[in-house]
Amino acid sequence: MSDNRKRWDSSAIHQLSGDVDTDELYKRLEYSETVETRRRTAELLGNLADTDLEYEEATLVQNLTNAVLTDDDVAVRARAINALYFHGDEYITELINEVAKSVRDGERTDDVTQFFLGWLDAEYPEFRMVAASALRRFGDERVVPSLRNVFDDTDARVRARAVRSYSLVDGSVRVEPIQSMLRDSAPRVRRAAATALGRIGTEDAVEGLVPAARASDEQLRRIAVEHLYQLDTERAAKVLLQALSDRSRTVRSEALESLLRLVATGDSVRAAAVRDALIEDTGTPEPTDIVDVLRDVLARADRNDVRCHAVWLLGEFVGAVAGGDVRNALVERLDDGDPVVADIAAAYLRQLEGEALEKRLRRLVQSDDTSLDGKERAASILEKIENDTATRIEAMDIEYTYVSEPSDYTAKRTTDDVSE
User: pTM for the full model?
Assistant: First the structure.
């Protein structure tokens, strides 16, 4: 052991309050002769992630990474891995790259895959966690049984990462083991399993997500409905329709986007059937909520076919639900970046009228934030409303007089009476 390491054993470790001397901590981590001091220092550096104290994160990460790569005590290295985990999952990825580079540059006879397989059997869960993540990138068919074997690891982080890697490392993996992890005691494992099944995307994989759409875990329900569009069946559509009554708006938005994607890309459900179910089924949420959720989809969805179906559905709601909300939502889309979406909104708005609608359209025309195309669409609708109004007045044979105040009307009636 070096004299430099001995020099840093005498002082007590600072607690994380007030100003913290990170340089002092880095020196203790590298040079302290006492394993307990280095271990505790690694813990303190990890705990900085939960404070408002200022420090240079890149330097902190580098010192912790060096400890993982060079410290001669396995407990210190495990604590350093844990500290990196607290600061962000991306640093575990960076660590994996550094470890792989070290293996390649060293005098080892085993390859990177074999090295991480060794870590998968380590005593400390931190090493197993890194290995389970690393094998997603460096694994091949050899690692599938090993990953499957750690599905019952005592550490939830290991189980979640093993499930994720298992689903990615080989296209021929069985989905039943992943489906069984939907019943894991840890939420992060259940969510990793649901994401893995959605990513695999086969019928039997996505079928396993149907029960998850009704789970108590909100994030699990969101993941499940997000991927159910891949199950092109009426059953999937029914589950998604039911999810529109979910207590979480996030889940409702994901469910509606998934439902519209199923309609747009699948063959089992027609758009008109979805429209009728949303308007007529008493089990659906309040109409204004449907409009708000459609707004969410239009603002977030990146697929043109989904957004076109969403604005079409808004148009179909006119006259059936909360008219004012629907009209406002359609006006918002007149300046949509997708001209097809904007044109669909315009087509429905041309069928409408009303003072409130005219005001919204005029504001859109006058706004500096509206694009030229958006202004032209709004002006075109205004022109049609005005022409329709004039046509109806002529058809009723009513002489139209502009009245700015009640006396205008009184004066006209007096003149008419005298002439008679």
Answer: 0.81
